[in-house]
Structures are given as structure tokens and as C-alpha cells.
Design a protein that fits this description.
The protein is mainly α. It has 16 helices and no strands. The longest helix has 39 residues. The protein is globular.
Amino acid sequence: MPAMPTTDRPRFSAALAFLVAGGVWFLVAGLYGLAGAVHLMAPEFFNNIPWLVFGRTRPVHVNTMLFGFVAGSLMGAALHYVPALLRAKLWSPRLAWVSFWLWQAAVLSGPVTFAFGITQAREYTEYIWPVDVCVVLAVGTLIVNLLMTLARRGESGLYVSVWYVVGAMLWTAALYPIGNIMWRPQTGAVPGILDSIILWFYGHNVVGLLLTPLALAAVYFIVPRITKTPLYSHTLSLIGFFSLAAIYSHIGGHHILQAPIPNWLRTLSVVDSVAMIVPVTVVLVNVWMTARGRLGMLWNDPAGRFILVGTFWYLITCVQGPLQSLPSVQKVTHFTNWTIGHAHIAVLGFAGFIAIGALWHVVPNLTGRRIYSRRLISLQFGLAMFGLVGFFLVLTAAGLVQGQAWQRGETVYRALPSIAPYMILRAMLGVSILASAAVGLYNLLMTVHRGEPIENTLAQEVQA
């Protein structure tokens, strides 16, 4: 069973800084997401404020949520538990701080540059070239730190969480420069259909080879600890790891089936999208079998509840994903709000819920303080679940309305009145997500500054 380190707990480490920054970015991304939802509900609302129109708020929302909140929080947790699993101290805390500041500079650039239309104008690759350099350097320094910690480990065996974290960093180091066309800094793009192929190779893999392995690493670490049981199967965990690496990288092409891409690429992307049932099933069977008979322990634990529900969102995401990759289904669902609903449950439902769970699991050990309020965590969970379930249902319904209208030959603008009520509901549900981020950040800051010291609490329990 994964153990926590017995070394001294730093008062404020780079790992904790990543987690606190992740909480801040969750709130910032939520604010921009709500601004985008308001724009879709009332297009003229921000007409005289150029930096708040949808074309500028959406990339801020997406990149800040993806890189700032989800990836940042999961990396912060990993900086804590990877050394624990290796029974070693992190090789260089100073280098970890370098990684932290490079990463935060990149995320902060989004609200600044995108607000003025300074962007590469490619989905998920909007950051301009100097920011791309910051991201690559941040990932590179993290790789050095992790590999040097690995080289000095006191544990001979490598638990699967270490495989996933190191894999995520190495894959991202290779993936990010290619997806962002960093060898052409003046445009960040290449001519023709090749650009779309590269873009969606990157766009899908930034979720599948960065967020997914970091999230699964956290799940594999936390679930056995909360349930106090060993991992069901180390063999299954490695099958899941290598099948993810082998299959996921090829599926981005299903986003551009309607484009003039080679037929072999169309076929490969659809087949591998369906084949994703292998790594997903392996992972979920392994995790749920580890927790069999003890799901109540996960549900009653403030971190475990987020982790458990995150695995269910993973299942829903990876059932819906292969389904919507089929050409016959895409005729109705593609280029509609159905896809937007899918993206929300993938990033916020699966990886985001697990990121929040990982945060609440490791923060007490990083700070030496108990969580300030378990009730606030329950409130955060309820608000996030209400908002996300609503997002999923409303956006899926809106997508089907759009798809059916276009199947009947309706033009895009004629379908807009039909989805107007759904856009109002979307904005209202966004308030719930934003409130969840605010509650979580408040609870996190209060835990860091006013949480009851664990040593004092234990002493009181002994006296009692």
C-alpha cells in the first residue's frame, strides 16, 4: 500500500504552491467560463468590452482550466507522493520552484495576451511562442527533478503511479513542441490540412497523455490508502499504462473525419477510439476491485468522494467518446454542443474531480494541518456535481437539437432560437461551478493558515 513520507513536512513547498495556485486558477477559469456563457446567452452583453467577447474569453477559460487548475493541481500532488513512493526526498526543491514559476507564468499569460487578441489562433495551442518556451522549460525541469529523484530512490520497486507521472511528463515534453509547431515561431502553424492533423494529434493527446496519466496516478495512489487495502493487480495496472500509450495517441483524427484527411487515418482514429475500451476497462476494474466492499470508505472520505465520482465520470467519458467517433453518430453530434458537453465531463468531471480529491488528500500532510472544514468540502462537491451534471444534460440536449436541425437542412442561424433556452440554463449552471471553485479556494486557504495542527489534535486525542 502506498505510504506517506516520514520526512519533515515543509511549511510551504512547491508542491503546495502548485495546489494553491490550482485553486486560484479554478476560480479564474470559472469566471471566464461564466463570461463566455453570458455572451452565448446575450451576445450583445459585452459588445463594448472587446476583451470579454466570446472569442477571447473562451481560450482563457479552456487553457486556464486545463493547464492552470487541472494539470497544475495534479502536478503539485505528484511532487509530493512520487518521492513518498520512492522513499526519497525530492532531488531539488529549488528546481521544483523553478518549474512552478515557469508554469504559472505560462498560465498567467493567457488572460493577458488573449484579452488583446495576441494568440496563435489554434484550438488548445493559443499560447504564443515565448509562452510555449516557458511550458517546455517547466516540463523539462520537472522531468529532471523526477528522474534524479528516481535515480536516488530507496525503494527498489516502482509503483504504477510513478510510471504514470513520469510517462505524462515525458509524453508532454515530446507532444507539446510538435502540437504547437514550435519550429515556426512566427505562425505556430503549418500550411494546409497537415495543420489540422497535427493540431488534433496534439489536442486530443494533451488530455489523454497529460491529464489522464496524472489523474490515474493520483487514483492509484489514493484509493489503496483510503480503503487500507493493497492494489488489486499490479499486472493490470501496467497493462492499463502500456495500452493507454499504445492506443490513445492515434485517436485525435476522429475530430476531423469530415475533412479531406487520408482514409487510413480516418479508419485508424475510429478503430483506436473504440479500442480505448481496453485501457479504460482495465483501469476501472483494477481500481474498483481494490475498493470492493469498501466503497463506503471512499464515499465518506472528503478526498475519496471526489476520486470515486471522478472514476465514474471517466467511465461515462470513455463510453461517449468512442460512440461519438463513429461517422454515423458524428453526422448528428459533431460541431454541436454535444461535443462541448463531452469536453466538460472529460476535463472537469474526470480529471478535475480527481485533481480536487488529490488536493484534499495531500494538503494535510504537506501543511501538517487538518482540513479547515469537511462541511465545506461536501458543499464544494455538491455544487460541482450539480453544475456538471446539469452541463452534461443541457449541452447534450442542445447538441441533439442542433444536429437534428442541420440534418433537416436548416442553416446555423435558424437553429439558434431552438437552443437559446439551453444557453440560459448553461449560464445558470455555471454559477454553481464558480461557487464550487470559490468555496474550495476559501477552504484551502483557511486550511493552510488556520487549520488545526495535526500534532496538537493527536495530543488532545491521547489525553482524552
